Structures are given as C-alpha cells and as structure tokens.
Amino acid sequence: MVTQGIAVTGSGDRQRLSVEHPSGEFSIEVTLEQGALTGCGLVRTARLLFDGQVCVPRALWSGAQKS
Predict the structure, then answer these.
(1) I want to staple 31 with a disulfide (CB 3.0 to 4.6 A). Which of 1, 39, 45, 51 is the partner?
(2) What is the pTM for the complete model shown?
(3) What does the pLDDT profile of the chain (67 residues) look like in tens digits?
(4) What are the extents of the domains in the chain?
(5) Distances (CA, A) of 43 to 33, 34, 55, 63, 67
(6) Strands laid side by side in the 14-21 sheet
C-alpha cells in the first residue's frame, strides 16, 4: 500500500481517508468490527459529464469537427 507508514488513522470502528488528486478529491470510509472489514464506501467529486446528453467544456469545443 502506497500510504502505509504515511497515513494517520484514528481510533474506532469507522475510519475515513481523504485522497486528493489533480482533478479533485475523494473520500473512502471503512467500517471495522474486531479488526475485520465489514463495510466500505467511496464518495468522489467530479464535474458534470452527462445529463441526458454529453457535456463538453466550452473551452474545448470550437464547433468544428476533426476527422
């Protein structure tokens, strides 16, 4: 594991780790019972990708198609 020896964990049965990357951040939450993993969840932020149609950022769209 890349973060082993670097990440600091708290005490208790529920742990949360925040991971930051160039395009945003995501949080991982794990639930433990007697040291065994019993649950895991992931929340990630991201820009809108689609809403019934594909969303292309204005800065990338010139209206011309390349072949």
Answers:
(1) 39
(2) 0.46
(3) 566 677 776 778 888 888 787 777 788 888 988 878 899 998 776 666 667 877 777 877 776 665 5
(4) 14-60
(5) 22, 25, 21, 34, 37
(6) 14-21, 24-33, 36-44
